[in-house]
Structures are given as C-alpha cells and as structure tokens.
Amino acid sequence: MEKIKLKDIIPYFLMFPAILVGILAMISNGVSSSVWMQNIIIWIVGSILGCVFLTKTKHKQYDKLIDRRPIIIIALLIAPFWFDGFDGIHRWIQFGPLSFYIASIVLPLLLIYLWKLVGNKQYVYVIGLNFIVLVILLLQPDAGQVTAFACATSILLWHKMNNKLLELFNLIMTTTIVILSWIFIDDLAPVPYVEDILFLVKDMGVTWFVIGLMSLILLLFPFFFNGKKSTMSLTLGVYFLVMMIVTFFGHFPMPIMGYGISPLIGYLVAITSLNKIKR
C-alpha cells in the first residue's frame, strides 16, 4: 500500500473555495440546503475515495481500467438518447430522482485514455474516437462540451503528433463540428444557481466576485501550476478552463462552483487520475 502524501491531498482542498463561494451565493438567493448540500457531500466522499484509490490501487490495475474505458464511455455518451430529455436535449442519464450529466463525468476519463493512445502513436485511432465523441456531443446537443473536448484533444495532438497532414485533418474536422455546435446551440433556459452562479456571486459585491474568480483559478492549479507540466495535465487543464469560459457565452454549468454533482465527479476523477499517474 502506497502512503498518501501532502501533494496528493492539496488538489482536493483547492476545490473548497469555489464550492464555498458557490454555496454562499446559493444561500443568499434562497436556494434550498437540500441542493447545495449535495456539492459538499460529493466533495467530501469523492476526496476520501480518491485518497483510498491512490493508496490501494496498483499501477497495473489502473492501466487495465484505462484500457477498458473507450467502449464503456461511448456507450454512456449514447445512453442519454434512451431517456426523454428536456426540450429535445439529451445530456442526462436518470436514475430515479437523480440525473447525471454524463459527459462531464466521462470526458476527463476519455482524455486520459486518448493521452495513452497518443503516447503509443495510435494517431488514427485517436482522431477516429475524437470524431465519434464530438458527433455524439453535437447531436445531444452540447456546444460547451464540444468546444472544451475539441480544444483539449487539439492540444493533445498538437503536442504529440508528428504527422502534419493528420494534424490538419483533425483541426479542420474539430473546427467544423465546433462551429456547427454553436450554430445549432440549444435554447434551454438557464438555472441561476447552475449556469449563472458566477453572476449570483457578482450580485453579492465586487469583493465576492473577485474572490469567486480567484477560487476558479485555484481549480486550474493542479493542471497548470503544480510541479512539472505534462501533456496530460495541460490537456485536462484546457478542458476545464474552456468549460469555465463557455459559461460566459451560453447556458452551460459552471464546474464546481455551481450546483451539479456530475462536474464535481468529473473533476475529482481528473485530479485523482493525474495524481495516480504522477506517483
């Protein structure tokens, strides 16, 4: 069993400021405690499970888990089409009263798998998976996830792929799909404490708004500022950065700060996997 180190725990605690600021904004706007408590519970449980995973799981076991991911992830991304959805939008898998925004959970996992494939120079396979996933996201439709995933995979391939023709093909393909996703963007009304949480924070005052922005920057620390940067950490960092940026241009959930257990789970998976690979 590997011992847990302070550097392994820090990324989990860096989530707390954004969660706290979001909760304070929800409370000030009369959001029920049954809503914002879910963020706290997922953060605590997820952080504990992440630490257990880091200490208990061997690298060989982790590699086997990675190799089994793509088919499962594609199936999970397609699964929302079997549910009713909302106004023709199919992004969620429903289990009783719970709805899981599945793309925000599984895409960080898929980016890690693609990083491994790129390392093995399986460029055509990576571009093929990239195309399939982007088309599924386009059909859901989800312009935010399309943009974030496209930017992340473009960074991944740009850093690692030496074939200029394939790079150009991938760039044209991803750019086209991103443009289409914004042309056919959904008109689903925003939930204030999900998509517009940062604006609720702004209503609390300029000081709180600045604190809120700083707390979001902290979420990027494990990917961009924590020790030696790898292609995988940059790829994941770009994904989460773009997911934050798109909230200013459309009705997309703000990760971690806004209400939503699925983005929390996806972020926890990302930082835990990054820690595991670095160990």
TrEMBL record:
<protein>
    <submittedName>
        <fullName>Uncharacterized protein</fullName>
    </submittedName>
</protein>
<feature type="transmembrane region" description="Helical">
    <location>
        <begin position="12"/>
        <end position="30"/>
    </location>
</feature>
<keyword id="KW-0472">Membrane</keyword>
<keyword id="KW-0812">Transmembrane</keyword>
<feature type="transmembrane region" description="Helical">
    <location>
        <begin position="122"/>
        <end position="139"/>
    </location>
</feature>
<feature type="transmembrane region" description="Helical">
    <location>
        <begin position="36"/>
        <end position="54"/>
    </location>
</feature>
<feature type="transmembrane region" description="Helical">
    <location>
        <begin position="95"/>
        <end position="115"/>
    </location>
</feature>
<feature type="transmembrane region" description="Helical">
    <location>
        <begin position="168"/>
        <end position="185"/>
    </location>
</feature>
<feature type="transmembrane region" description="Helical">
    <location>
        <begin position="232"/>
        <end position="250"/>
    </location>
</feature>
<feature type="transmembrane region" description="Helical">
    <location>
        <begin position="145"/>
        <end position="161"/>
    </location>
</feature>
<feature type="transmembrane region" description="Helical">
    <location>
        <begin position="205"/>
        <end position="225"/>
    </location>
</feature>
<feature type="transmembrane region" description="Helical">
    <location>
        <begin position="256"/>
        <end position="274"/>
    </location>
</feature>
<keyword id="KW-1133">Transmembrane helix</keyword>
<feature type="transmembrane region" description="Helical">
    <location>
        <begin position="66"/>
        <end position="83"/>
    </location>
</feature>
